[in-house]
Design a protein that fits this description.
41% helix
Length: 355
């Protein structure tokens, strides 16, 4: 149980909860790595305590049903755990699935960190379909309460997040953005005296920071054509970035994040929760686990670099390396108590040699 106490001590520095709630969170976190699912019954079976599984399960249910706390406190945790000296690169996107007939629709804003998105703010919707302008503005207002607009390098978004009112909001809040648009979107500034589709600019192989007026806003268009695709990548921005296409490609980090949460890590879709408040708490916990995995993978990478394959990509991501190491350490807890204690301290940014 020494590793649970160590994890509790670390969490109590950022979460000013009572001791029982901190202890429950620490148990849930270590159990998540053991069972690789958010199914509460399976999590309760991996609690490191003398209580039986049913008692642990009721304890977890009470945590989600009755305990309330400030979800936005995760922003301070993330920025301390993953310090970023340069300006922040944010991405907004949506993931959804169904539990029976109930839609689970999560609108999320993430922070780019070494190829992976880290959740900062999220909103749970119980209906399907695209996000509304109201929800998009709400999620941006929440993050601006924690991060000044001067710290934001760019907001990255796919073709769902377009529209004159949405662009007006971002411009009014002085938020730089790079957002993909459809080639049929019509703009002026391409053909003299005419409003024509953006695809008219695809006469050359690449276009960079071409000024246009789109949906009533003065913007810059950048275009690149991709191999074996008839659909060009068209990005609009409210600033002339040095390399807008390269920067926009980092939007994929939020897709990587969804993969870590849903399939390659914690199997978020296994949950039976449909209550928005409880789902928000679950993602809060998963964000802590995600940060722990990435920090552990980063520390391991410094001592034992990942092999690079022939196609140029690494054999394993930082998340996967950290996730696997934490699991191994917890499973062999009796033999390697010192190792799991060192791994917990990676959250504090302390460097140790990983064996």
């Amino acid at each position: 149980m020494q590793h649970i106490n160590e994890l509790q001590n670390y969490l109590s520095k950022f979460l000013f909860w009572n001791k029982a709630r901190i202890a429950c969170l620490a148990q849930i976190l270590q159990a998540l790595f053991c069972v690789k699912t958010v199914n509460l019954m399976q999590i309760s079976s991996a609690f490191q305590s003398d209580a039986n599984t049913d008692s642990s399960y009721r304890r977890i249910r009470r945590f989600f049903a009755h305990f309330t706390f400030d979800i936005s406190s995760i922003v301070g945790f993330v920025l301390h755990c993953l310090p970023i000296e340069q300006r922040f690169l944010l991405a907004i996107d949506r993931t959804n699935w169904k539990i029976g007939k109930q839609h689970i629709n999560i609108l999320m804003l993430s922070l780019y960190f070494k190829g992976v998105g880290i959740p900062l703010v999220w909103i749970i919707c119980n209906k399907g379909g695209n996000s509304s302008l109201e929800k998009r503005c709400e999620i941006m207002k929440r993050v601006l309460q924690k991060i000044r607009h001067r710290r934001i390098q760019a907001l990255l978004a796919d073709r769902e997040f377009i529209g004159g009112c949405w662009f007006r909001f971002l411009i009014s809040r002085k938020i730089p953005f790079l957002i993909r648009v459809k080639k049929c979107a019509k703009a002026s500034g391409i053909s003299w005296g005419e409003i024509v589709p953006l695809e008219k600019l695809i006469g050359h192989k690449n276009v960079k920071n071409h000024p246009v007026v789109l949906w009533g806003h003065y913007l810059y268009v950048s275009i690149t054509t991709r191999k074996n695709s008839n659909d060009p990548l068209i990005v609009v921005s409210n600033e002339a970035f040095d390399d807008p296409i390269k920067l926009y490609r980092k939007r994929w980090s939020i897709e990587t994040l969804f993969g870590c949460l849903k399939t390659r890590g914690f199997r978020l879709k296994d949950t039976s929760m449909v209550n928005p408040e409880r789902l928000e708490k679950l993602i809060f916990i998963l964000t802590i686990a995600l940060c722990w995995s990435i920090k552990t993978g980063e520390a391991l990478e410094k001592t034992k670099p990942t092999r690079v394959k022939k196609h140029g990509r690494k054999e394993k991501s930082l998340f996967r390396r950290g996730f696997d190491l934490i699991r191994r350490a917890i499973f062999s807890i009796r033999r390697k108590t010192d190792q799991i204690l060192r791994i917990i301290r990676f959250l504090e940014g302390i460097s140790y040699e990983v064996c």
